[in-house]
Amino acid sequence: MKYLLVFDFDHTIIDENSDTWIVKCAPEKKLPNGLRNSYRLGHWTEYMGRVFAYLGDNGVKEDEMKRTMTTIPFTAGMVDLLGFIGENKELFDCIIVSDSNTVFIDWILKAADFHKVFDEVFTNPAAFSSTGYLTVQNCHAHHCAKCPKNLCKTKVLKEFLDKQLERGVSYTQIAYIGDGGNDLCPVMFLKKDDVAMPRQGYTLEKKISQLARDLSPVECSVLVWSSATDIVSYLKLLIKE
């Protein structure tokens, strides 16, 4: 009896978007219009690469970025939820699938001592170059028309589940916890025994509701949460059963 918890990161574990939070490090805490307007739909990672280059050009160093990122607040109830999972790791495998990057997620989880809660983190690889600039790459290549160019969360989830099966690990239930439009693809991959947990008032909840109105509802059950304590309550019931 093992459960898999799949977490998004931005606006799910943390209560902000890590990629827009880093702009606090920029001169006057904003980006020039030309850079801001250079974003093309589905090409966020390339855009962030330009943002990081701009920060580097303006002398923003790694320690300043780290200090800024570790001030991001966790979402309401999330500290309790991650604490609960940490205490019950024998029952829960736990992964992050995020459009943020390895450096930001690593900083934030380690600063709060939550890195041990997660078995694996799947996100865009990032690193500091020899000149001290933060660089970021696409998570992987994929052929999913529904997802942004750099990341299909369903592909990540499928590959993880296949790898676990090879190790002899299968899951009684998958719970997917997220908020964004790019979380819909993996939610539609879930089966009837699984549960999608969209954050109340965010894009994922609206898209799931729209599918139900269009009479093509998702196959899994849906539990909307506003505080992560709602998720703790669900998990407590689950492990009592």
Beta-strand portion reads 15-25%
Q: Specify the structural class.
A: alpha/beta
Give the oligomeric state of the chains in this entry, treating copies of one chain as homo and distinct chains as hetero.
single chain
| Count of individual helical segments | 10
Could you describe the largest sheet, including whether it forms a barrel? 6 strands, parallel
Radius of gyration from the alpha-carbon trace, in angstroms: 18 Å
Provide the low-confidence segments as ranges: none
GO molecular function, one term: phosphatase activity
Keywords: Hydrolase, Magnesium, Metal-binding
Cofactor: Mg(2+)
Active site: 8, 10
Structure description:
The protein is α/β, with parallel strands linked by helices. The chain has a domain at 2-15 and 74-124 and 147-239: HAD superfamily/HAD-like (Rossmann fold, 3-Layer(aba) Sandwich). It contains ten helices and eight strands. The strands form two sheets. The protein has a six-stranded parallel β-sheet with strand order 3-2-1-6-7-8. A two-stranded antiparallel sheet has the order 4-5. The longest helix is centred in the N-terminal third of the chain and has 14 residues, at 44-57. The chain starts with a strand and ends with a helix. The relative contact order is 0.16. It holds the Pfam family Put_Phosphatase. This is PHOP2 phosphatase. Substrate binds at residues 19, 99. GO terms for molecular function: metal ion binding; phosphatase activity.
